[in-house]
Amino acid sequence: MWYLVLRRPVKPREEWTVSLDQHLVWMKQQHEAGKILFSGPTPDRKLGIYVIRAGSRQEAEEIAGGDPYTAAGFTAFDLIEWEVHQIMGAGPFTAAGLQAHK
Question: CA 43 from chain center: how many Å?
Fold first, then answer.
């Protein structure tokens, strides 16, 4: 199963106590482990997304929940289950397009 994780900021950046470096170290580990296949903002910069490879929704939630930003309450996420062919043919991602697949 494949999951697309939508992310959006929930706290102003000046309130963040987790650094971008901590987030990037975590992200690199997930990419190297093959858990996150793609990450980045939508072109309109309204959402950041992860394409996560997981065997279950619970596993996808655990992966996304391990992000230092999520753990510190800086971002929230919604999970959308997608098949591989949907992800590969869907780009570029937009906030409106992602919401349409919920």
Answer: 15
d(Cα 65, Cα 30) in Å, to the nearest integer? 12
From 18, 1, 22, 34, select the one nearest 73 (Cα to Cα). 18
Interval 1-27: pLDDT, tens: 667 777 776 667 677 777 788 888 999
* Whether this model's pTM surpasses 0.90: no
Instruction: Map tokens 């190297």 to a residue.
Output: 32
Q: How far is C-alpha 51 from the geometric centre of its chain's CA atoms?
A: 6
Q: Label the pairing between strands 2-9 and 36-41.
A: unpaired
Domains belonging to the chain, first-starting first, are: 2-100 (3.30.70.1060)
H and E: helices and strands count for the chain:
5, 4
CB neighbour burial string for 65-86, b if at least 16 within 10 angstroms, e if fewer: eebbbbeeebbebebbebeeee
